[in-house]
Design goal:
The chain is an alpha+beta fold and 433 residues long. Among the domains are: 67 residues, Muramoyl-pentapeptide Carboxypeptidase, domain 1 (Orthogonal Bundle); 65 residues, no CATH class. The protein is 24% helix and 21% strand. The strands form four sheets. It has an eight-stranded mixed beta barrel. It has a four-stranded antiparallel β-sheet with strand order 8-11-9-10. Strand 17 and strand 18 form a beta hairpin. Helix 1 packs antiparallel against helix 5 and helix 5 crosses helix 10. InterPro entries: LD-transpeptidase_YkuD-like (IPR052905), LD_TPept_cat_dom (IPR005490), Peptidoglycan-bd-like (IPR002477), PGBD-like_sf (IPR036365), PGBDSf (IPR036366), Transpep_catalytic_dom (IPR038063). Pfam families: PG_binding_1, YkuD.
């Protein structure tokens, strides 16, 4: 039975103040700066905060032995357990190597010799004598693969040396940060079904009775328009949705397009103009609006511009709504080719689904049939959606690190650790779990 010494703690859960009702379109609203998104979740629905007490003040991290095989009514999320095992493996492999510092210098590769090569060999657990041979190149490749340094090539360049000099403790702390995020995910038996959106991986996972039954690629927010870490209930979907253009984009973008292309822009790109945001607005002739004045104004317009349903619509064929103050939801996308790219951090914050039909079939039990524009389809039961951010992935050989596109790991380091808060060593004695 494996035991591991973990660091657990709870940071304050930040409640949000509802935003004043206003026309804002189908685009996200920035998360307030008071919410430290390195670790903190925004619990939109209080019943989902089942891991830590709300309003709990940050405390000193305490070492705790966790028994993987213990029988209990509920346990931390499976993603947490995988990371915990990954930490144990990392500490027993890469963490046991000499933490030798390697001075900056020229790129080292097969055939290189000298003092820096000897230090590199020592750092990776090889005898200092031997030069940059095939064995060292393989060790460098293994290190690059585990630590997310791009395509492993066995060449010790600047990025590889910088990573090695950060040391194993730095990476163990990154695993612990990701464990803390995963610890905020649902405990076992908390929900029958739930969704995890991982904006660190740009992937979405579907869980049924704590078992991952499906996953797909997603497109999430860019570094400038981050997808927030939050927990919310998905309550309905809308088939054949309109896209409501945010008022500031009408002023800064739509008006500019009309000036360049004329009012034919609306027909060409399937837009229409309504008198207001009430839901009962009159359709207006775009020619009746002074677009130059709209573009020059500092105030947002009160009329509504929306894109009609269809294969051209920015929302795609369906969007999945989760009431929240930040305008975040999941939706289809007409730009399917973007899901083949590795860089999928390009949205304005909302989550675009690779296969909305597969997602909808799982959510509803079958693919809903709808033909009317903006047809609302309520879920039989709300489905919890946890939007997290993981930069460490469990693997068959421990863990693999990913880039930190939002900089949340760097933000979380001082939240979780100071000079006295170091990860405890793996426990070897029998202690209470």
């Amino acid at each position: 039975m494996n035991k591991i010494s973990l660091i657990f703690g709870a940071l304050a859960m930040a409640a949000t103040t509802p935003l004043a009702a206003q026309p804002r379109g189908d685009e996200p609203v920035a998360v307030p700066r008071s919410i430290k998104q390195g670790i903190d979740f925004v619990y939109v629905d209080p019943q989902m905060a089942n891991v830590a007490k709300r309003k709990q003040r940050p405390q000193n991290w305490l070492a705790r032995l966790f028994d993987f095989g213990a029988s209990r009514r509920s346990a931390p999320n499976p993603m947490f357990l995988d990371l915990a095992r990954g930490l144990e493996h990392y500490q027993s492999t890469w963490g046991r190597l000499p933490q030798t510092k390697i001075p900056a210098g020229a790129v080292m590769k097969r055939g290189s010799t000298g003092k820096r090569v000897a230090l590199l060999r020592t750092r990776l657990g090889l005898p200092a004598v031997g030069g940059y041979d095939e064995m060292l190149a393989q060790r460098v490749s293994d290190y690059q693969r585990v630590h997310g340094l791009g395509r492993p090539d066995g060449i010790a360049g600047r990025a590889t040396i910088t990573s090695l000099n950060l040391g194993a403790t730095h990476y163990a702390k990154r695993i612990a940060i990701n464990m803390e995020r995963a610890y905020r995910l649902p405990q076992t038996r908390a929900f029958d079904r739930y969704v995890v959106v991982d904006s660190g991986a740009a992937e979405t996972y579907l869980f049924d009775r704590d078992r991952k039954v499906d996953q797909m690629r997603v497109i999430v927010g860019s570094n400038e328009t981050k997808t927030p870490m939050m927990a919310v209930l998905m309550r309905n979907a809308k088939a054949n949705p309109y896209w409501h253009v945010p008022p500031d984009l009408v002023r800064t973008l739509t008006a500019k397009k009309v000036k360049e292309q004329g009012v034919s822009y609306f027909d060409n790109f399937h837009y229409e103009v309504l008198s207001d945001w009430s839901g009962n607005g009159r359709v207006l002739d775009p020619k009746s609006i002074n677009w130059r004045q709209v573009a020059a104004s500092k105030a947002n317009p009160t009329f509504l511009v929306r894109q009609k349903p269809g294969p051209w619509n920015s929302m795609g064929q369906m969007k999945f709504e989760m009431p929240n103050d930040f305008g975040i939801y999941l939706h289809d996308s007409p730009l399917k080719e973007l899901f083949a790219k590795e860089d999928r951090w390009i949205s304005n914050g909302c989550v675009r689904l690779e296969d909305y039909r597969r997602f909808a079939t799982w959510v509803f039990g079958q693919m809903p049939q709808a033909s009317a524009p903006e047809q609302r389809i309520d879920l039989p039961r709300p489905v919890p959606v946890y939007m997290t951010y993981l930069t460490v992935e469990p693997s068959g050989s421990g863990v693999m690190f990913r880039p930190d596109p939002y900089g949340f790991d760097a933000l979380a380091m001082p939240q979780m650790f100071d000079s006295r808060m170091n990860i405890a060593a793996v426990a070897t004695d029998r202690a209470a779990g």
